[in-house]
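Entry for heme C complex. Fields follow.
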Amino acid sequence: MRLLSLLLLIFVAYAANADTYVGGDRCATCHQKEYRVWKKGPHASAQKNVEASTSQSCFHCHSTGQGPAATQLPLPNVQCEACHGAGMYYAKEDVMRNRVLAIKLGMRELAPEDKMVAMCQACHRDDVGIGKKFNAVKSWKRIGH
Ligand code: HEC
Ligand code: HEC
Ligand code: HEC
Ligand code: HEC
């Protein structure tokens, strides 16, 4: 029995890595406050700047969930799961109340602060965007929920 649940956990953790996104509307059913803040912020409309682009590489940072295959259609804009991880396995009430389990099932660990900073910088690289120096901690204070 223990072996079985261990195998199941390994399988699910593996599957969670395989980009299984549910979309921000689903998160919003339980996290309305965070959704409202996000909706007003820069990430909720990040795709309009690249809509006209023919280069698939833009979507990697201006949308959510684009996998290595260029044909994989991403979710529009920088949604919840771009930062929190693909939610198919953790976005359930009983899992969400168990932080350790939620992280095992794909929720990204964003504390302590250096983990958050590394996550932001995966997209906010100094060589992209408008060349302003990016400070993740200060930026998060402006847009955080
Ligand atoms: C069915 C309701 C439900 C859905 C859907 C849901 N959550 Fe949650 N979430 C919760 C509950 C309940 C908690 C725990 C709150 C607490 O313990 O105070 C939580 C906690 C969290 C936390 C804080 C975890 C921590 O302890 O640091 C994050 C981040 C989070 N959810 C993100 C998301 C994201 C992203 C989605 C969509 C992919 C999502 N949630 C979908 C109910 C939900
Ligand atoms: C590695 C991640 C990444 C990639 C790839 C990327 N962008 Fe961006 N882009 C960003 C970030 C982060 C910002 C916000 C930077 C800022 O405001 O300092 C941004 C901002 C922008 C802006 C707005 C600048 C402004 O003045 O507000 C435009 C337009 C843009 N990107 C177009 C593109 C196009 C077109 C492509 C593809 C050729 C692309 N981006 C690829 C991360 C990326
Ligand atoms: C740009 C990245 C980013 C996006 C997009 C994002 N979040 Fe977060 N979220 C964070 C960070 C960073 C934290 C703080 C983590 C911490 O302090 O542990 C956080 C915290 C949270 C928490 C915990 C709040 C608390 O009081 O403990 C919840 C719930 C949450 N986010 C839900 C969402 C939902 C729902 C969405 C989409 C509507 C979303 N987030 C979009 C980065 C993001
Ligand atoms: C999946 C890629 C991605 C991640 C992860 C990400 N961002 Fe962004 N962010 C963007 C893009 C793309 C834009 C530009 C949106 C646009 O087109 O105007 C942006 C814009 C912003 C802006 C407004 C422009 C500026 O520099 O003032 C802030 C602030 C910001 N992000 C903060 C953060 C913080 C803080 C984190 C981590 C908690 C984070 N972002 C994580 C892609 C990302």
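NOTE: The first helix runs from residue 2 to 17.
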